[in-house]
Amino acid sequence: MKSAVLFSGGKDSVMALNYALNNGDDVEYLLSIKSENDESYMFHVPNIHLTDLISQAVEIPIIEVKTSGVKEEELEDLKEGFKQLKSLGIEAIYTGALFSNYQRSRIEKLADELDMMVISPYWHKDPKEYMDLVIGSGFKVIISGVFAEGLDESWLGRIIDEEALAELVKISEKTYLHLAFEGGEAETLVIDGPIFKKRIEILDADIDWHNDNGTYNVIDARLVEK
């Protein structure tokens, strides 16, 4: 089946890509929606510019669509991306949706209009089991944004490994933190993993912190042989 992945470079879209490849799908494209609005309701924003580099790292071409990020209006931009994929013979679109009905329902509606299939392989998977799977699968995931109680500046740029996950579990026991960050508690960036032909090396990054939230913004990065 000719497929594409709605792709941000975060853990969920990378896991969806990993699933599709392991499922034997012919993943021909990544689709990256680049929003000008940092508070987009639909799309991942921190370090979205690195999807180009990740595309090279996994050796799958990327289609980029720009959007102003205005609520609901941004769906028209997504639809244009889907139309491009449809014209290229794509039959199914994989997403990293976990629990957000807002995102999933809108993606599926657009796909239905174009007679395309949407596959969200980890929909409603237990958050702890899912994060164990991310780590156990060998992906190197860093936290690129924190927006929730219990997550301070020290988390920015940190690798999510077993130790970090254990700390997140403790925090979630005291707050409403979703372990997989599906409520927008944090954003992530994947820089290496089993489907990466090359790894991403971050050369320069800046932390932008505002009282109780912030982002880890990659300024310069390159691909490195593994």
Strand/helix succession? EHEHEHEHEHEHEEE
How would you state the average pLDDT, rounded? 92
Supply the number of helical segments: 6
> Mind telling me the C-alpha Rg?
17 Å
Side by side, the strands of the main sheet go 3-2-1-4-5
Separation, N- and C-terminal Cα atoms = 30 Å
Shape: globular
Largest sheet at a glance? Answer: 5 strands, parallel
The secondary-structure class comes to alpha/beta
- Percent range of helical residues: 25-40%
Poorly predicted runs are none
Total number of strands: 9
Question: Which percent range describes the beta-strand content?
Answer: 25-35%
Quick take:
With 226 residues, the protein is an alpha/beta fold. The protein has helices at residues 11-22, 51-58, 74-87, 101-113, 127-136, 162-174, and strands at residues 2-6, 26-35, 62-67, 92-94, 117-119, 140-146, 186-192, 198-210, 213-225.
Structural topology:
Layout: E1 2-6, H1 11-22, E2 26-35, H2 51-58, E3 62-67, H3 74-87, E4 92-94, H4 101-113, E5 117-119, H5 127-136, E6 140-146, H6 162-174, E7 186-192, E8 198-210, E9 213-225
Parallel strand pairs: 1-2, 1-4, 2-3, 4-5
Antiparallel strand pairs: 6-7, 6-9, 8-9
Helix pairs in contact: 3-4
Task: Describe the protein.
- The protein is built from six helices and nine strands; from the N terminus they run βαβαβαβαβαβαβββ.
- α3 (74-87) packs across α4.
- Strands 3-2-1-4-5 form a five-stranded parallel sheet, sandwiched between helices. Strands 7-6-9-8 form a four-stranded antiparallel sheet.
- The relative contact order is 0.17.
- The chain has helices spanning 11-22, 51-58, 74-87, 101-113, 127-136, 162-174, and strands at 2-6, 26-35, 62-67, 92-94, 117-119, 140-146, 186-192, 198-210, 213-225.
- The protein has 226 residues and is α/β, with parallel strands linked by helices.
